[in-house]
Amino acid sequence: MKVSSEEEVQGLYEESANAYSEMMDREIDLPVYADVLGRLARGISELQGPLVDTSCGSGHMLSRYRERYDSERPLVGIDLSPRMVAIARARLSSRTEVLLGDMRNLEDIKASSAAAVLSYFALHHVTPEDALEAFREWRRVLRPGGQLVLATWEGEGTIDYGAESDVVAQRYTKDEVVRWVHDAGFSVSRCVIEPVEGLPMDAIYLEGRKRVQ
Ligand SMILES: C[S@@+](CC[C@H](N)C(=O)[O-])C[C@H]1O[C@@H](n2cnc3c(N)ncnc32)[C@H](O)[C@@H]1O
Question: Would you say the CB of residue 123 lies under 6 angstroms from ligand 1?
C-alpha cells in the first residue's frame, strides 16, 4: 500500500498550514471536539503525566484542552511540519513543548510517562506497517492505563486531494484500525464511524487504554 514520502507530506502542510489553522479556528467549536476532550479529561483525571498530541498541527486541540478542561496538565505537541510547529508554539505558550518530529518515533518522551496520546487525522499518511509501529511507540510512552484517542479517515483506497495536492494518503477500515490498536497492546473502549460535514468520507473515532499485560 502506497503513501507519499515524509518530504511530500511535509510539503503539503507547509503550504496549507495558515489556511488549516484558520479553518481550525472555526472547527474547534464543533461539538465533536467538546465531546472527545471532555471524555479525555475525565478519563485521565487520576493519571499523572503529559497529554501528547503526536500530530498536533496548529495546536487547536491541545489549546482547547488546556482552556476548557485541564489547565494544569503538561502538554506536548509533535508535528512533521515546521510551519505547523511554529503556529502551534505561538498558540500554546507556557508549559507546552511543541517539537518537530515524527509520530512513529517519540524519542524525546520517556517510556511509561504520558497520561494520554492523541492522534487526530494523520494516520492516513502512513502505511499499515508504520501505523502498527506508531501504535507500539504510543504504547511505549503511555503509563499503564494511559489513554489513546484517535481519529482517522474510514474506508478503503486512497484519499483524493483534488487540485490541492498530489499527495497519496490511505483510508483504513474500522476493522483494520481496531486490529492494529489491539495488536499493539491496547484495549478499545469506544470506536464509532461518523460522517464529517462537507466531506465525502466518514471518520473513525477510537478511544482505548494501554493494556497491562
Ligand atoms: C490533517 S492535519 C491534522 C492536525 C491536527 N491533528 C488536527 O486534527 O487539527 C495532519 C497533521 O499531521 C501532521 N503529520 C503528518 N504526518 C506526520 C508524521 N509522520 N508525524 C507527525 N506529524 C505528521 C501534518 O504535518 C499535519 O499537521
Answer: no
